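Structure in, sequence out. Go:
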């Protein structure tokens, strides 16, 4: 018996060592599909969960948070017209856009659709109209990262289309925390939808984070990202169990996996969710007869595999 216990303890210790060697923290009852993840108490800085937190990886459209900050720091006129030009088109990945060349928006609306709907042409237009142009905007983004003490964050463009835009989960938590200090960024990233007057007709835009539609979430800031090199990414500031937290999920495997991971983290922190969890078989007495309530299951919807590098 003593030998079996010793062998079991050795297996447990070996497993813990393998987790540590691969940058994983033991998280009983929680399995994530994100390659890197971090959950931090925003108030105290306590790390509640981490998985490969120091590895620099492509961050796709999460980049737009830094673009927004340096643009606001420059104190540009938010009501000034910004026109989408030919040079704002994505020639790197040829991503789809709902903003035709020639569309004119206020800078405020340009920022809104860049953050809320992850519009790449809008984000590039913000960089292009930054004092000094795109190069000056990117330089300001890297300078701000350095001033924040970020050691892994680097930016090549204001949209996130370049795989050279990288950061670790720890550095992204700092970016999210800093961006949360900007009321305009909080508003733009959590607005569910908007309609703007396009060049030819009104254009409706929707937030790329579907969790904002759920009453179970209290989200103060949100941004999604996707390119082939980054996988699905999601960062948020939210309130879980009456405490403000920063959530970073990078390179999630599978369509919608980042949202599934976020929901698993919420349930892990707040406890069982009777609406989401599968109902157990229960007995109900009706007319002196026992009737079993069938298990409730959720049927996954099939989605088209084609992806656009902006969400």
């Amino acid at each position: 018996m003593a030998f079996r216990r010793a062998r079991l303890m050795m297996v447990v210790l070996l497993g813990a060592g393998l987790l540590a060697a691969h940058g994983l923290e033991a998280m009983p009852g929680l399995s994530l599909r994100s390659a890197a993840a971090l959950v931090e108490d925003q108030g105290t800085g306590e790390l509640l969960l981490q998985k490969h937190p120091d590895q620099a990886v492509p961050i796709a459209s999460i980049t737009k948070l830094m673009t927004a900050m340096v643009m606001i720091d420059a104190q540009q006129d938010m009501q000034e017209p910004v026109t989408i030009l030919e040079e704002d088109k994505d020639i790197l990945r040829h991503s789809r856009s709902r903003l035709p060349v020639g569309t004119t928006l206020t800078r405020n609306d340009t920022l809104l659709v860049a953050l809320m709907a992850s519009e790449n042409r809008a984000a590039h237009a913000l960089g292009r109209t930054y004092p000094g142009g795109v190069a000056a905007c990117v330089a300001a983004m890297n300078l701000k990262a350095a001033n924040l003490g970020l050691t892994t964050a680097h930016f090549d463009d204001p949209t996130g289309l370049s795989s050279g835009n990288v950061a670790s989960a720890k550095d992204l938590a700092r970016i999210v925390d800093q961006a949360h200090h900007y009321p305009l960024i909080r508003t733009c990233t959590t607005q569910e939808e908007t309609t703007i007057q396009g060049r030819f007709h009104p254009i409706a835009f929707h937030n790329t984070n579907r969790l904002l539609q759920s009453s179970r979430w209290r989200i103060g800031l949100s941004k999604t990202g996707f390119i082939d090199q980054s996988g699905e990414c999601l960062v948020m500031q939210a309130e879980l169990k009456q405490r403000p937290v920063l959530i970073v999920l990078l390179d999630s495997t599978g369509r919608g996996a980042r949202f599934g991971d976020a929901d698993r983290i919420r349930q892990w922190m707040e406890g069982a969710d009777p609406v989401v969890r599968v109902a157990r078989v229960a007995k109900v007495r009706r007319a002196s007869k026992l009737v079993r309530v069938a298990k409730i299951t959720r049927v996954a919807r099939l989605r088209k595999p084609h992806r656009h590098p902006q969400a």
